[in-house]
Design goal:
The chain is α+β, with helices and mostly antiparallel strands and about 350 residues long. Helix content is about 30%, strand content about 15%. The strands form 4 sheets. The protein has a 5-stranded antiparallel β-sheet with strand order 2-3-4-1-5. The longest helix has 20 residues. It is globular and about 60 Å long. The relative contact order is 0.16.
């Protein structure tokens, strides 16, 4: 239950040669919690803007009490523009009258970021159990992107795993055979059934926003029968990115919009400044790659300094975005990382 890109689960999948029909793909979400002046009286979801047309994602605003609002933006990591910056897009989005009216006069009290598995039904591993192990939640990829469901699937898979483990312990058999009921239960559950109905919907948007919207509508109407089968795709790291023209630099005001450094502070980061780097970087990183990483990372871990890449490892909030597209994330000392309280 490590969440996305867990080092134990990834190592186990590789060691045991556990495959899936499609590779897992991911999205990056950046989230803020705001204490506001007046309660938010509705749930808000958006799709598209402020993203470019070649990117898939959307935003939300949720009331979480009389004076607390959850706000965020999620973007699929298969976007084409290497200068796309999810954190900056969220800051620009808050300047829209829809969101400014909700937040103005309030205070941003917490910030965070994480990756989300988005490959759907065909990216689920062929088995989720082994000798002495059950893999649950985001580590399996139990997220249904079109319906924005993942938390309760993770909880349900944990319940299925607990039942399978309990039965295996009673029989004194926690081998792969003894825990096989877990994978079978997940595959026969409403979780897999829900994900099968929308199995190709996220993948339809790889052809663009408008064509994806049309295909997704047909998939919804037919319960996934159109187009049927499986849409093949590559992993996110195989998608070519280009440095598009740089726009006007964004200058946060420190009240409604914030820099990455300010955001990391709001994550409650508890990492000491002299921690050994837990990020494995290739020997040769081009200037273009350095700029892509600078924009990709929502926490300011990576910076382009002329032709070089500078790595600020203590800033890391363990979102795993660069683990998907470039440098490898490895476990670091206990107690390090963000100190989320209400995220």
């Amino acid at each position: 239950s490590e969440g996305t890109r867990g080092p134990l689960s990834q190592a186990w999948y590789d060691w045991q040669s556990v495959k899936s029909d499609n590779p897992q793909i991911y999205a990056l979400g950046v989230k803020e919690l705001w204490e506001v002046k007046k309660p938010l009286d509705r749930i808000i979801h958006t799709l598209g803007w402020p993203l470019p047309r070649d990117a898939f994602g959307g935003s939300w605003a949720y009331p979480q009490g009389e004076n607390l609002v959850s706000l965020g933006l999620v973007v699929g990591l298969d976007y084409e523009d290497a200068r796309l910056d999810v954190h900056e897009l969220l800051q620009r989005m808050k300047l829209h009258p829809l969101f400014r009216e909700i937040l103005e006069g309030g205070e941003m009290v917490e910030w965070g970021a994480k990756t989300i598995p988005a490959g759907g039904f065909h990216a689920l591993p062929e088995r989720m159990h082994g000798d002495g192990i059950c893999v649950v939640g985001d580590s399996v990829g139990l997220v249904d992107v079109p319906s924005l469901k993942g938390i309760h699937y993770a909880m349900q898979s944990g319940m299925y795993a607990a039942r399978a483990i309990f039965e295996a312990l009673k029989k004194d058999d926690v081998s792969a055979d003894g825990l096989a009921g877990y994978t079978r239960t997940v595959r026969e559950s409403y979780v897999a059934a829900d994900m099968k109905k929308t199995r190709n919907m996220r993948l339809a948007f790889k052809g663009g926003f408008w064509s994806g919207s049309a295909k997704a509508g047909l998939m919804t109407v037919t319960g996934g029968a159109f187009p049927g089968g499986r849409i093949d795709h590559d992993e996110d790291a195989a998608d070519v990115k280009h440095l598009n023209d740089a726009g006007e630099p964004f200058v946060p005001d420190g009240k409604l919009t914030f820099s990455k450094v300010d955001a990391v502070y709001k994550s409650g980061n508890q990492t000491r400044d002299d921690i050994p780097s837990h990020l494995i970087i290739g020997e040769e990183v081009t200037a273009e790659m350095a700029e892509m990483l600078e924009n990709l990372c929502p926490a300011g871990v990576y910076e382009r300094d002329g032709e070089k890449l500078v790595v600020n490892a203590p800033n890391c909030v363990d979102c795993k975005a660069t683990d998907v597209l470039g440098p490898r994330w490895t476990p670091r000392e206990g107690g390090a990382g963000p100190g989320y309280r209400r995220m």
